[in-house]
Amino acid sequence: MVISTMTIDAGVLDSTFVSRYASTPLPRNKMPEKPTTCDAAYQIISGELMLDGNPRLNLASFVTTWMEPECDKLMMEAINKNYVDMDEYPVTTELQNRCVNMIAHLFNAPIGEDETAVGVGTVGNTEAIMLAGLAFKRKWQNKRKAEGKPYDKPNIITGANVQVCWEKFARYFEVELKEVKLREGYYVMDPVKAVELVDENTICVAAILGSTLTGEFEDVKLLNELLTKKNEETGWDTPIHVDAASGGFIAPFLYPDLEWDFRLPLVKSINVSGHKYGLVYAGVGWVIWRSNEDLPDELIFHINYLGTDQPTFTLNFSKGSSQIIAQYYQFIRLGFEGYKLIMKNCAENAKSLREGIEKTGKFEVVSKDIGVPLVAFSLKDSSIYSVFDISENLRRFGWIVPAYTMPANAENIAVLRVVVREDFSRSLVDRLITDIQKVLADLVSTVAATSSLESTKNVKVAVVKKTVEETVQEITSYWKKLVNKEKTTGVC
Ligand SMILES: Cc1ncc(COP(=O)(O)O)c(C=O)c1O
């Protein structure tokens, strides 16, 4: 290892950063006056980053944490390509278009073999959902204007279980969000209630294929049936968007007969995550429209200052190309069979985890067998310890397992959730079950030790363990303070 020459400058401070290459501390919040050698900069930063959690043990996230080295190599080779320079990087653009078409076919879009699908790659589902929402809003406004009706009060219907990006869409683009409340034991949008909320100002009903909270698929087929009937009765033509962020790359492979996509006539657009079960690292989502008619032309910008005419419909301009290339790699590397095998493995591992968790006798599993491969589970008895205690204690073993409360009106249910990704192997599943058992035993003995200490001291203090409701209240008021009364589940 080469030890570099150091530039020593006494003036800069903070002993937080330590390296054998540099004895001069760096300022924490101000740009240093002088350059640092590249190896010193590397060592300082990589040393500090060690304190981050291990992504592979982060069971909170759906987002891909492992890819093949060949794909890592391709991504590094493309790291300096700005995706938006389509004229300069026409092959990258072509790969994006191929991905859009592959996904559209996977979702049964009504396009002929020689036709081109309508869709775009995004930085994630949030951008994809903003674009889909904007298209619905603009279409609805155009129709209302043409009919000479007011168009200033658009609304959108979702379940209370939607991811926060839907709330962002509603607030940023001034659309009222009408949420179908949940209830104990039913943690997804009820299609009957959703259709009841639809009125002439509804720009669309958004269903989720793979609820973020429990992985459960919402019943898009029933929603399509009920909405078709309501549209016939009222003369409206309220459409459906499917947020298939997690389920879009699960259902076609594991449940091909489940009708949730463009096979249903009212489904006009679908978003899906490249960086979740699309199996690419963070930074890619997709939105596909049923047809050209569903994407109002005035939302598409045409720029030509980079060379040729470029149609764009995105919220941002520049972005990396690596994720698009990686998505294409996964599609051709795995093919339908490869994706199917991986999703099957994930489902098998989720089943094994579910069984292990049930065997402890302490939990009730709230996720369903059919859905995104994850296990969401609540405590049968929270009088001694809570799911939040379990989550905190699992950190000792390196596991990151989120605990959270359900949204309105099921806030009294608190759950732990483990997402099973491709790299969460069966041996890790077994290890996690063992560690959960250890945590449960430790929590019981800690409480017992505390009680006996208190009784020997003869102090009249009861071991007050909070009930779930009390913990929920505490957490809710904490978050409310932080986000000014806005809902957040803190999971993605
Ligand atoms: C159902 C659903 N929609 C949207 C999102 C937001 O996705 P992204 O993080 O890619 O913006 C998530 C994230 O977990 C999700 O689960």
Q: Looking at the structure, what is the overall shape? A: globular
User: Alpha-carbon distance between the termini?
Assistant: 41 Å
* CATH third-level topology of the domain at 72-333: Aspartate Aminotransferase, domain 2
Strand order of the largest sheet: 1-7-6-5-4-2-3
| CATH class membership of the domain at 72-333 | Alpha Beta
Note the quaternary state here.
Answer: single chain
Strand composition percent: 5-15%
Report the bound ligands by name, code or SMILES. pyridoxal-5'-phosphate
Kindly describe this structure.
40% of the residues are buried. The strands form 3 sheets. The chain has a 7-stranded mixed β-sheet with strand order 1-7-6-5-4-2-3, with helices on both faces. α2 runs antiparallel to α9 (322-359), α4 (125-147) crosses α5 (164-172) and α9 (322-359) packs across α11 (426-456). It is an alpha/beta fold. A hairpin with a 6-residue loop joins β8 and β9. Among the domains are: 1-52, no CATH class; 72-333, Type I PLP-dependent aspartate aminotransferase-like (Major domain) (Aspartate Aminotransferase, domain 2, 3-Layer(aba) Sandwich). The protein has helices at residues 38-49, 69-77, 90-106, 125-147, 164-172, 191-197, 220-234, 251-254, 322-359, 387-394, 426-456, 468-483, and strands at 118-122, 155-159, 176-180, 202-208, 240-244, 267-273, 285-289, 301-303, 310-312, 363-365, 374-379, 403-405, 414-419. Helix content is 38%, strand content 13%. The longest helix has 38 residues, at 322-359. It starts with 37 loop residues before the first helix and ends in a 9-residue tail after the last helix. Pyridoxal-5'-phosphate is lined by residues 62, 124-126, 163, 165, 208, 212, 243, 245-246, 273, 285, 492.
